[in-house]
Design brief:
371 residues, 16% strand, 6-stranded parallel β-sheet, alpha/beta
Length: 371
């Protein structure tokens, strides 16, 4: 009898974020594996609607979107529990579902995907109980594995590291010239030195480190007169006010460009526009944006106290710094910008990144875990 596998998610196609991107690739890989082995695979999403599905990742027959109908989701989930061999939960907020399924069908293997801060913090009794009932915990980085073991006394043998990879459908550059349309949009020239940060700019998540880059610009502009800092991502009103005050306080109004949300279709072009990607965050579970930048041939600076170091392979592909040391950040940016970013270097970074963080390798490792 073929294996029956279901991936339960909160939201996969209707929003864009690191977890959503990771889950899309996971779904695509699981579908490919299932098709090859003649297994039965479906993805069920609590908050996506049927119309949200991106069919390049999997066919409509393999997807069920409940469109915020949590009651219907729970009802259908529990009624199908006895038929499943493996159920994968994309987030620990689905823990209660996992516990109920295990109660109904003890033989069903329950996996959890552990991303980052959602499992690094104190957990409720039910979530802690769920961790003990899991058959496998798939951690997106070594740091996340270490934290889940340290904080919750999770059995290390249950935790398996499966790094995130570049989305197989991401448009990657084959040449590395700066896009003219973006130069015109932001009123830049090829003579400008451009630092780029792409992240969620939320007042509730002030650990991304972009404020440190804004502060460093005050000195960097003296050595790099044409320097520009493109800070991208959706922001709320409170964070917009805070960022603009920082920009004014450090007198870098001429250097900082706030773009707001960037559509996925323009992501690669923004990486091509830049000379350096900087995100000195403290709480990245992995940081898909780092490997996206590298896959576009863009050098990366990240923090050294979270899962970011997996994305740069412990310094092989990028530079990590102590995020609370402004002098170290300024020095790292200066050193990177003083080395010309040639087409050959961009090609090398892209090749090295894709050698390690590609969907084919991801699928092979996932198949091994399934077996």
């Amino acid at each position: 009898m073929p294996k029956k596998v279901i991936l339960f998610t909160l939201q996969t196609f209707s929003t864009t974020g690191g977890i959503q991107k990771m889950t899309r690739t996971l779904a695509y890989s699981l579908h490919t594996i299932a098709k090859k082995n003649e297994w039965d695979f479906t993805l069920w999403s609590v908050y996506d609607k049927e119309s949200d599905l991106m069919t390049k990742y999997l066919p409509a027959k393999n997807f069920k979107g409940f469109g915020f109908s949590r009651f219907n989701f729970v009802l259908k989930t529990l009624s199908s529990a006895k038929k499943q061999d493996i159920i994968i939960l994309s987030h620990i907020n689905l823990a209660i579902i996992g516990l109920l399924i295990k109660r109904i069908n003890p033989k069903c293997k329950i996996w959890l995907i552990a991303h980052g801060i959602e499992v690094w913090r104190p957990l409720s009794f039910l979530k802690k109980l769920f961790l003990k009932r899991c058959d496998k915990i798939i951690c997106v980085s070594n740091f996340t594995k270490q934290e889940i073991v340290r904080r919750h006394q999770t059995t290390p043998a249950l935790c398996h590291v499966l790094n995130n990879v570049v989305d197989p459908f991401m448009k990657l550059p084959v040449t590395f010239t700066k896009p003219g349309n973006l130069l015109n949009r932001y009123q830049l020239t090829s003579a400008n030195t451009i630092i780029f940060t792409l992240t969620r700019l939320a007042s509730s998540e002030q650990y991304k480190g972009y404020e440190q880059v804004i502060k460093a610009l005050n000195k960097l502009k003296l050595n790099f007169p044409g320097i520009k800092y493109i800070l991208s991502g959706q922001y709320d009103t409170i964070e917009e006010t805070r960022i603009k005050k920082l920009i004014a306080d450090y007198q870098v109004e001429e250097q900082v460009i706030l773009t707001g949300f960037i559509d996925e279709s323009e992501l690669a072009d923004h990486f091509l526009l830049a000379d350096l990607f900087v995100l000195p965050s403290k709480k990245e579970g992995f940081g898909i944006v780092f490997i996206e930048a590298l896959a576009c041939g863009l050098p990366v600076i990240c923090g050294n106290a979270d899962g970011s170091i997996d994305a740069i392979r412990n310094g092989e592909l990028g530079k990590s710094i102590q995020v609370d040391d402004p002098d170290e950040l300024e020095k790292a940016i200066t050193e990177c910008l003083n080395i010309p970013l040639t087409e050959n270097k961009r090609q090398y970074l892209q090749k090295q990144c894709l050698q390690h963080f590609n969907e084919q390798n991801y699928r092979i490792n996932l198949q091994h875990l399934l077996n």
